[in-house]
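3.2 Worked example (two chains)
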Amino acid sequence: MKRFYQNYKLLFGISGLVLILDQLSKSWIRSSLAMGEIWSPWEWLTPYARIVHWYNTGVAFGLFQGRAIIFTILAIIVSGLIIYYYPQVPKEDWYLRIALGLQMGGSLGNLVDRLFHNGQVTDFLSVGNFPVFNVADSSITIGCFILIIGIWLEERKAKKESILNENEVSIQENSSLE
């Protein structure tokens, strides 16, 4: 049990925090604003950013509307795969561990909505002309960015190590020729 806890504490901590923040914010929106109602603390801010009660039966950015059952099944599969794969991620790959936690938390946040709100995910963050989104959507997106940046940094590090190794071999070859 201790090994299980050590393997999963970061994953469940991050995903749990995302899930709680997501569900609390959505609950507040559903209880405070009527469907389609807009709230903004300052009138001048409304064209740029506002809170609006909306729902989505597709995925992020309003894509693939009406396919809630597919995304429900997909969220369960993705979460299961993350739980299976997570212990295999080296502890040094913290960026990947954080990214997976954010992605799983976001996936579970929208899954809870789909299961308990007739396949509809509550969205409420509206910025400019961008599609309305929520904490779970943001978490998945941020997790993807962290993953991409982490992979890029790892590739850079590997390339640098490869160049250093090549230089080392070249120096050794030169010194053996002398």
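3.2.1 Second chain
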Amino acid sequence: MKNPMAKMVKIENAYETWQSFDGSWIWKVLKKWQVDDNKPYARWLCAVQSPYTMGAWDYGDVYVEEIKSLAMKVS
């Protein structure tokens, strides 16, 4: 199966946006490395904004399971 989210996009065009339950963290999904997000160690390339980034975005791979356990999908 082909991965429709395999190409990296800019923050403004993120595939999905996730927000922590308290609203202090935001993950913008810029690329998905695999089709099945339920695989162990599945990961996404994300731009992350948190209280520690002071309004800026940090980029990096994040385990899908970690995001889903801490946040809800908002778009």
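3.3 Remarks
The mean pLDDT is 97.
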